[in-house]
Amino acid sequence: MMFKKLISYLIPVTIFLSKSSLSKSLEVTWVKGKLILDSENTNYSYGDLQDILRLGLKEIGFAKVKSMDEVLVLGVAGGSVVKTLVDEINFDGKITGVEIDPSVIDIANKFFKLNEISQLDIIVEDAFEYILKTKNTYDLIIIDIFQDTKMPNFLFESYFVNRICTLINDYGAVLFNTMLLSDNDNKRNEKYVNDFDLANFKIRTIPRVEQHNELIVIEKQM
Ligand SMILES: C[S@@+](CC[C@H](N)C(=O)[O-])C[C@H]1O[C@@H](n2cnc3c(N)ncnc32)[C@H](O)[C@@H]1O
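Above: inputs. Below: predicted complex with S-adenosylmethionine.
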């Protein structure tokens, strides 16, 4: 393991590869001394993805996030945002992670030791099903759902958006990571923000740092 990590400062070293019906492939690779998880065409966990979500959390405010009690993460993969919450923000409340793909969770536990985080509860289920039936409410919901580069349509449907907003506690927030690969995707995001007119909520986008991602932040006022 140490040797592969050292070599990775020169060239990336893949240490695990499997086919996946949902993500096309799942690949664990050492890159410049860091272990990352990729699907066939995009970074899933750690690497750029972790930087993007960290930026979103910074925009909401690390201090505000630290003071929260309950966080829901939809789309867990290797759990890099969970590590940011626990190791960097020192968040000590409860984290619930919902992930549709059990093989992703096996990878998260084996290579990224997610099972050693005691405040994290992982539920293997479709996020849409979960938010329909949960009776819990949350201070922060992180939506980070991709099937390789594709975002399922339900994420942009008003039924899902409204349901998410009913699960948010007063003064809570939603951090929604989106990918923009075409003009249609740009229009989809513009429509999402323009059509959003729920009372007591504010919506904004964060100017993108990574070429293809745009973060949407929704904050509940009271
Ligand atoms: C970009 S990764 C998540 C990265 C993670 N948030 C992190 O911080 O490392 C996207 C994940 O969404 C999962 N996913 C896709 N569709 C889903 C669904 N309907 N419900 C729950 N998870 C889903 C994929 O299996 C994949 O693991």
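The chain has a mean pLDDT of 95.
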